[in-house]
Amino acid sequence: MLEHEPSLILLDINLGQTSGFELCKRLRKTMKAPILFISARSSDDDILIALNIGGDDYTHKPYTLSVLLAKVRAVLKRYGGQYTVEAPEILEFGKVRTTARFPVCG
Question: Which one of 2.40.40.10, 2.60.34.10, 3.40.50.2300, 2.60.40.3930 gives the CATH number of domain 9-99?
Answer without folding.
Answer: 3.40.50.2300
